[in-house]
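Page 37, continued from 36.
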């Protein structure tokens, strides 16, 4: 009878027989998917590709994918392929928390890379702490926080903002005496300015020599505020500067109005603490040349590591067609790129993707950052030691290196200059 079976009947009979045998012998589709999942490790991204932060923030997911491709080209991490799960929090602070929980609980990512503004980070913080997950945060920020569940990839004010302000107050920076603080109305600008006021008070600068104003996130009409800056600058008492902490689309809108009113960097220099090369795309920066920023990376930094990073980014843009310029690299892109590689090195060192083991191994690894500095996480905090640059805006929408630190100063998570 068996010899007389047709091929079709044999396959049908075999298929029916499979239903009656144990799963250990013949895995079902769900088990096959699980086996495949065991060959991968997932990283989750919390970067907005829509809303007020999209122009700068959205590109960071692409950088995480680029870094994962580099790891996979070398065999992955501990033999596993790195898979990137992207999301779009849409510049909506509560949505970051919701999506972070989804990435941790449903997608079971090994680590999160995400957030731009401090308020988005603070919305995710309780989620990663409750889940004992790891968030790699790529922005320089106000400090005043040190969670074991966040790797702070960028610089607190002690190693970024204060060196820039000290430069402006010194002979090379024009000996600034008076300060107009203008920020978006949320935690990062207000905390930065609180620290700056404490710092200036420690230097004997009276409160009459600074002014503080805030605008909503996404604010675009700066005509009245630039008029107020002009009036402030006309008052006696020494060289005025603007310490700018507006974020997102407000940055190019502010500088556009500054140029429209004919105020140059020689008259009133602006220290744009969140200003990046990408913020000036499409702007005529000839009238804005000389304004400053301070970051842990500038695109014009010299060295083979930066040349390699920029070439890799240009190729990634060309290969994938993502809607970003391949010839523009900004600090948070480099920070999140560093973060993926630091995570991979720590996982390899630990021999595990488990958060406690990766966290314990993290201070023992270092990475050659495209900035030219060798970076590593501190042993007594989860802050990463970085170098810092002060940049001067040029006529081609970039920043020339005006000053950079010797080595990587130890970051101070909590500022001694907080002023009640």
């Amino acid at each position: 009878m068996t010899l007389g079976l047709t091929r079709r009947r044999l396959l049908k009979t075999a298929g029916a027989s499979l239903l009656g045998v144990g799963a250990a012998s013949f895995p079902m589709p769900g088990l096959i998917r699980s086996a495949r999942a065991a060959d991968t490790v997932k990283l989750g991204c919390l970067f907005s590709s829509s809303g007020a932060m999209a122009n700068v923030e959205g590109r960071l997911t692409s950088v995480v994918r680029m870094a994962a491709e580099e790891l996979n080209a070398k065999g992955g991490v501990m033999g596993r392929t790195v898979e990137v799960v992207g999301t779009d929090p849409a510049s909506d602070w509560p949505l970051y928390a919701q999506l972070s929980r989804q990435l941790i609980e449903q997608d079971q990512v090994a680590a999160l890379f995400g957030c731009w503004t401090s308020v988005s980070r603070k919305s995710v913080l309780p989620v990663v702490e409750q889940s004992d997950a790891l968030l790699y945060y790529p922005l320089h920020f106000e400090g005043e926080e040190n969670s074991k569940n966040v790797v702070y990839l960028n610089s607190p004010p002690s190693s970024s903002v204060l060196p820039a302000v000290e430069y402006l107050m010194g002979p090379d920076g024009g000996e600034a005496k008076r300060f107009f603080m203008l920020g978006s109305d949320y935690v990062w600008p207000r905390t930065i300015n609180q620290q700056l006021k404490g710092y200036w008070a420690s230097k004997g600068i009276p409160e009459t020599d600074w002014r503080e104003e805030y605008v909503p996130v996404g604010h675009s009409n700066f005509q009245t505020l630039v008029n107020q800056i002009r009036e402030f600058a006309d008052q006696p008492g020494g060289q005025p500067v603007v310490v700018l902490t507006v974020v997102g689309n407000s940055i190019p809108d502010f500088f556009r109005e500054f140029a429209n009113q004919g105020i140059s960097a020689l008259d009133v220099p602006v220290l744009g603490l969140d200003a990046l090369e990408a913020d000036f795309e499409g702007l005529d920066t000839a009238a804005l040349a000389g304004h400053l920023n301070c970051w842990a990376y500038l695109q014009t930094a010299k060295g083979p590591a930066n040349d390699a990073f920029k070439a890799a980014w240009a190729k990634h843009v060309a290969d994938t067609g993502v809607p970003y310029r391949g010839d523009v690299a900004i600090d948070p892109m480099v920070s999140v790129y560093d973060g993926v590689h630091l995570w991979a090195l720590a996982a390899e060192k630990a021999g595990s993707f488990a958060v406690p083991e990766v966290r314990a191994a993290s201070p023992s690894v270092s990475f050659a950052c495209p900035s030219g500095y060798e970076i590593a996480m501190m042993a007594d905090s989860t802050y990463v030691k970085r170098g810092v640059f002060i940049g001067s805006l040029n006529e081609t929408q970039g920043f020339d290196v005006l000053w950079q630190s010797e080595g990587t100063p130890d970051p101070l998570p909590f500022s001694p200059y907080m002023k009640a």
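The CA atoms of residues 315 and 321 lie 10 Å apart. Flag for discussion at group meeting. Residues 158-301+388-404 form a domain with the Rossmann fold fold (CATH 3.40.50.2300).
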